[in-house]
Amino acid sequence: MNPVLAALRGRLVVSCQAYPGEPMRDPDTMCRVALAVAAGGAAGIRAQGLDDLRRIRAALDLPLIGLWKDGDGEVFITPTLDHAVAVAETGADIVALDATRRPRPDGRTLAETVRAVHERTGRLVMADVSTYEEGVAAADAGADVVGTTLAGYTPYSRTGPGPDLDLVARLSRDLPVPVIAEGRVHTVDQAAEAVRAGAHAVVVGTAITHPTSITRWFETAVSGASA
Ligand SMILES: CC(=O)N[C@H](C=O)[C@@H](O)[C@H](O)[C@H](O)COP(=O)(O)O
């Protein structure tokens, strides 16, 4: 197995992202968040945007999963080959991209995109999928690792309050490549369950690095209890 993927086996990856307009949307801030989660034992970092990725790459030696959210179309996670190459050029070890069945804005197929990323950059590709069928297709297309990142975020995929552990289990059982559980892992129990379901690694974002959401969870509980 590729050493980057081997380093993530059975480990936690923390997604460090802030959204447009938010107070923490700043590369230096995200880099400090990445350093903080590394101190807690994160085995890898997932981050968004070329500036954040460059800053984090310069500061940390952990495996880095990079993506670039761009555009206002349905496919916005590293939507084109040009985006993927730019992400690779930041030094990210793994390029994460939308691998749903939806058309890509540059008209390339997933297989063409994966092949070109491999040929041009030598980086690994993480396919962010929303369904079992998309996971199978992504592995067929040459993706090095498949993530359940988009489960619940396409109109045709199942959604629930927590991670889709059934999807994690089925993909982990059937795919020839490692499967990363990602999306709505909000508790330590869910993270452990994902590994028991067969996940190669678990990505947690919001529950560790998005204080606005975490605050809202606590505030809702406190207000509800006092009502
Ligand atoms: C759907 C989408 O755009 N997901 C993004 C992908 O990078 C991020 O916004 C998520 O925070 C990340 O996947 C981690 O998931 P969670 O924050 O639920 O732990």
From TrEMBL:
Keywords: Carbohydrate metabolism, Isomerase. CDD domains: NanE. It catalyses: an N-acyl-D-glucosamine 6-phosphate = an N-acyl-D-mannosamine 6-phosphate. It comes from the Bacteria. Its EC number is 5.1.3.9. InterPro entries: Aldolase_TIM, NanE, RibuloseP-bd_barrel. The keyword Chaperone does not apply. Belongs to the NanE family. NCBIfam families: PRK01130.1. This is Putative N-acetylmannosamine-6-phosphate 2-epimerase. It comes from Streptosporangium pseudovulgare. The gene is nanE.
